[in-house]
Amino acid sequence: MQCLSKLLLAAVAMAAVPAAMAAERAYPNVGKPLAQAEIQRFDRMIGPEGKELPVGHGTVKEGAELFVKRCEVCHGKTGRNGIVRRLMVGKPGEPYKGSFYGQEMNGPSYYPYPTITWDYINRAMPASNPGTLTPNEVYALTAYIYYENGIIKENDVMDEKTLLKVQMPNKDGFVPAKPVYPPDPKWPSWY
Ligand code: HEC
User: Fold this and answer.
1) Which domain holds residue 80?
2) The domain spanning residue 117 has which CATH number?
C-alpha cells in the first residue's frame, strides 16, 4: 500500500511538472503573436538569382542625393572615409581580392553577386533605421554605390532586370571552402 501511494505521489508530481512549465512559459505581458503581414516584413531575403526582387528602378543621380541624406553620416562623403570601418568604395577598376578579414575589404566590389548589395541595404541600412527605404530608393543607392566603385556607368539605371546583369568584378574570386586540419595558425581562432 505504501508502495502504491509512493507511485501515486510520483505520478502526481510528474503530471505537475508540465503544468508548472506551461505556467512558467506564459509570460502574460510580454510579446504578442505577429500578424502575417509583419512576418512578411522580415521574410525578404533576395537570393543570387534575384527572383524575389521587387519591381522598381533607380538612377545613380538619385542614389547620390539619397546617400548624402541617409548614409553620409556613417559612411562619409561618397562612401569614403566614414566613421564606419567598412569601406563602401574601394579602388574602382581594382576590386579588392584579399581575404575576407582584410582591412581594405569593401563589400560592394567584393560581393560575388550583384543582388547582395541590394539585399543588404534593403534589410540592414541605414543602420540607425533599417527597413525604411523603398525599393526605388534601394535601387538608386545600389546604382550609386556600383557607380562609385566603377562597376556600372553613370547613366545605367538599376531595376529588377538590369541589376541581375551587373558583372561583379570579384565574381570568380570565391572558391569552395576546403576543410583544413589541423587549422592553419594564421587564421583567427573563430574562423
Ligand atoms: C548609423 C550608421 C549608419 C548609417 C546611417 C548607414 N550605415 Fe551602412 N553600415 C553601417 C555599419 C556599422 C556597417 C557595418 C556593419 C557590419 O559590418 O556588420 C555598415 C555597412 C554597410 C554596407 C556593407 C559594406 C560592406 O563592407 O559589406 C553597405 C553596402 C551599407 N552599409 C550601405 C548603407 C547605405 C546605402 C546607407 C544609407 C541608406 C547606410 N549604409 C547608412 C552603419 C551605417
Assistant:
1) 57-165
2) 1.10.760.10
Identity at 139, one-letter amino acid code: Y
Does any domain span residue 87? yes
Residue 2 resides in a domain: no
Ligand 1, from 75, 115, 118, 121: best to mutate by most atoms within 8 Å of Cβ?
A: 75
Q: Whose CA is nearest to atom 31 of ligand 1?
A: 125
Question: How far is Cα of residue 113 from the mean position of the Cα atoms in its chain?
Answer: 13
Does residue 174 lie within any of the structural domains?
no
Residues with CB under 6 A from ligand 1: 70-71, 73-75, 84, 86, 88, 106-108, 117, 120-121, 125-128, 141
pLDDT of residue 14: 46
- pTM, two decimal places: 0.77
Encode pLDDT of 71-111 as tens digits: 999 988 888 777 776 666 666 666 666 666 666 667 677 78
Nearest CA to ligand 1 atom 15: 86
Q: Which atom of ligand 1 is nearest to the CA of 142?
A: 35
For the chain, how many structural domains are there in total? Answer: 1
